[in-house]
Write a structure and sequence with these properties.
The structure is a single chain. This protein has 275 residues and is an alpha/beta fold. A hairpin with a 2-residue loop joins β3 and β4. α1 crosses α12. It has a four-stranded mixed β-sheet with strand order 4-3-2-5. The chain has a two-stranded parallel ribbon with strand order 1-6.
Length: 275
């Protein structure tokens, strides 16, 4: 079991026991480790103590983050920039597939793909000369091209290269090399989806927006449900940070790769903002 899988077990345990403020010993037991081993593992993974991390998982904290993010997001979304945290975040540009590329299903296109370990579990990555066209998280080992990739580009030639995928993943997730070069996302989507995804790229790490706020920001205040659907159709997880959109109530749900993973992503970013 990797570090993320142990942390995910703890997050699931907290879902049912957060009101009791579980002790370090109880959290360690939920992860199957001794208290000292769990504390070391957790600090290495999150960069914070379990106590600080748990604080970032509460509904009350999520609501406060929505309030604190409001002015930052207004400036970021209005200016087309991503606000104060951007220098410490990934530099990602989004390139849309042409109607012809979409219609052909990637005919004549070669897409490299592979699986790699990340702080949030195994991911698969797909990319070509235009940019990264696929990033998804998995709970098990991957033996075949993921369905999200083959469905999006059914006629493309797929070539597996796990070593190259590990290098790409490092640029996205590893602090030592993260953001060493700008990254491009190459996506297929409707004009509305592209508008939502471009807005998501402007939300700085450590900040969150509500679905309603995002709908208003793109000039479609009545389209909250459609914004949620567009977030769910995001083909490039994490790079296009749909995990930074939450409900007005502060409830963190609605993530295609599991709500525990969404909680982990947000809490880890929240801890980083506080450090």
């Amino acid at each position: 079991m990797n570090d993320y899988a142990r942390v995910e077990k703890v997050i699931r345990h907290l879902d049912g026991h957060h009101r009791s403020q579980p002790s370090l010993a109880e959290l360690a037991a939920a992860s199957g480790l001794s208290a000292s081993h769990f504390h070391r593992l957790f600090h290495r993974w999150a960069g914070a103590t379990p106590k600080d991390f748990i604080q970032c998982l509460t509904v009350e904290h999520a609501k406060q983050r929505l309030r604190d993010s409001a002015s930052v997001l207004d400036a970021a979304l209005d200016a087309g920039l991503s606000g104060p945290g951007r220098l410490h975040d990934l530099l990602v540009t989004l390139e849309a597939a042409t109607p012809g590329e979409i219609k052909s299903g990637g005919s004549g296109m070669t897409v490299e793909w592979g699986a790699a370990e990340t702080p949030f579990g195994i991911c698969t990555l797909g990319w070509n000369a235009r940019g990264i066209c696929h990033l998804a998280f998995h709970d098990d080992d991957v033996s075949a091209p993921p369905s999200e990739l083959t469905n999006a580009w059914p006629n493309a030639k797929l070539q597996r290269d796990d070593a190259a995928a590990a290098r790409e993943a490092a640029l996205i997730f590893e602090p030592a090399v993260r953001g060493a070069r700008p990254l491009r996302a190459f996506v297929r989507g409707t004009p509305f989806q592209l508008k939502v995804w471009r807005a998501l790229l402007r939300i700085p790490a450590g900040h969150v927006a509500s679905y309603g706020k995002l709908a208003t920001a793109i000039g479609a205040p009545g389209a909250t449900r459609a914004v949620g659907t567009a977030c769910g159709a995001n083909p490039v997880g994490y790079l296009i940070p749909c995990h930074r959109v939450i409900r007005e109530t502060g409830i963190v749900r609605g993530y295609r790769w599991g709500h525990a993973r969404k909680q982990a992503l947000l809490a880890r970013e929240g801890v980083g903002l506080r450090m």
